[in-house]
Prior knowledge:
The complex is a heterodimer.
Chain A: H1 7-23, H2 27-50, H3 58-75, H4 77-88, H5 90-95, H6 101-130, H7 136-163, H8 167-183, H9 199-203, H10 206-218, H11 226-253
Helix pairs in contact in A: 1-6, 2-3, 3-6, 3-7, 3-10, 4-7, 6-7, 6-11, 7-10, 7-11, 10-11
Chain B: E1 2-11, E2 14-24, E3 29-33, H1 40-47, E4 55-60, E5 63-64, H2 69-73, E6 76-79, H3 91-101, H4 106-119, H5 135-149, E7 153-157, H6 165-180, E8 184-189, H7 192-198, E9 201-206, E10 209-214, H8 216-221, E11 226-233, H9 240-244, E12 250-256, E13 259-265, H10 267-280, E14 285-291, H11 295-303
Parallel strand pairs in B: 3-8, 3-9, 6-7, 7-8
Antiparallel strand pairs in B: 1-2, 1-4, 4-5, 9-10, 11-13, 11-14, 12-13
Helix pairs in contact in B: 3-4, 3-5, 4-5
Amino acid sequence: MSGRPSTAFVLRVLVERDLRTLVRSPFILINRTIFFLIQLFVFAFLVSKLASSLGFNYFDFYSVGAVVSTITSIAFIIGEDLFEEEELGLLDYLLSLPFGHSLFVIGRALGGAVRGLIYVTPMMVLVAYVDGYFSPVGIAGSLLVIFILATGISGLSITLAMLIRNANRFDILIALAELATVRVSAAIYPLVYIPKALQPVAAYSPVTSASDLVRAIFLPGYTAGIYETVVLVLFVAVFFGLGSAFLFRKIEGGRFE
Amino acid sequence: MIEFKDVWKSFKNVDAVKSVNCKIGDKEIFGLLGPNGAGKTTLIMTMATVYRPTKGEVLVDGHSATTDPDSVKSLIGISFQDPKYDRILSAREILEWHGKVTGVEKSVRDKRIDEVLAKFGLTTEAKKRTWTLSGGTKKKIENAKVFVQRPRIAVFDEPTAYLDVPSRLMVWDMIDELREEGSTVVLATNMMDEADRMSDRIGIMNRGEMVQVGDPSRLKGSLKGRDVIEMQLDSPIPELPAEVSKTDEVREAVYEGDTLKIVLSNGRVLLPYLINVVTAKGGKIQSVNLKEPSLEDVFLYFTGMRLS
């Protein structure tokens, strides 16, 4: 007879499921890696030359932002997965398993984050190398920062997946959300170059916080600390809560046999 | 024991389950019989805590599905009507993950997976991605999840849909084995023969309501004094059902292809009269059969409709 598994065990098997599906679909990984390499060594290299007159090294700035924006867009995939699972009815199966709905949301968000981390760890190591940063502890710290960001983005993505009932609307919204979180942030351009009206939004963006924290680790002359960490943690907490709440709403108001 | 106490489940303005009261005993095979849309799956999902009852309560071994859902879920394993698993994964991966998440220890799990795959003849296909497999094979894998889990309460929703006859018999035997090992089985089906052969008791559901509960022989006995006349005609005459229904003793008259099926009391006495009615309307009778009520007739009697 079956038993009642512990919280840690449930989280581990939920993450394991996301990793099993990742292993079975390596083409997304290859696709994103090629895109990242082109962005870094073609786009960033050229723009850095153009921006050299501004007096700062855009290549270094962008290299960190490219990793942060890549993990952000990968973390959004979990919502698409969940939306598809709901459409296929797979969600009913997952929710009938012996763990609570909130734990399910946390497990899926962690699964999305771990999956994202596996994607971008080689990229982060490459960026550290090209930026001339070689401390393993610092690199581990930078991975922790983007893992926290990815967990929150996964929570946001799950919330959107549970909030929207129409597939087309969901596709549009998730694309806009991804665009907004990456573009309205200091991931790929400094805050001062963002239009004034959007600067306050970008300043509070978790993507900005994560980018600033990693830059503070890798690059001399950049600082970040408590404020950025608080923004990240709050972001994760808010979207775990909202994800759980909307998951419940979707199930209860959703389908009819 | 599973206990449904005045259970309602509504989605917006639709009552999918209405005032279901029912008890399912330990080690019982309980058949839920009803057409698509009767509320069987919604009732199962409410018991499995996926849906919260709008009103009423479901108790599973004394645990409330509403206030103690985790305890309830740890007792239940469900084989869904449509296979629900990651189709990018192989059968073995699906069963491994399901066994693991439902708390089956690795040594036991591996052995059970091998056994179940072998029984279903899936050993050679166990490593293929399941999206490449046939509908019947996918259904076997869905059932296999529960046979690997061996839960305290096993729920099967249309377990033999898409399966050929030998596989169907195999699933029935495996469900029997589960019960012999101590599981309670809830079997939702719209197949009369399956409900009749497998169930200790049957609950007939229609339009969200549990209209009748009883063991198959008792349900058939509830139509005691009622007979079924089947008249095979050359070609159906549309007005005949209404015509024969004018007789007080006739409960139901419908066509099944070219056969006019009449549920009535005193069939033996009324048979000559009904033959006259049919022939007077121009019906050419090929054969006549007078028989005892089947489970299908019971279903027709209590719901006013037929499953097929």
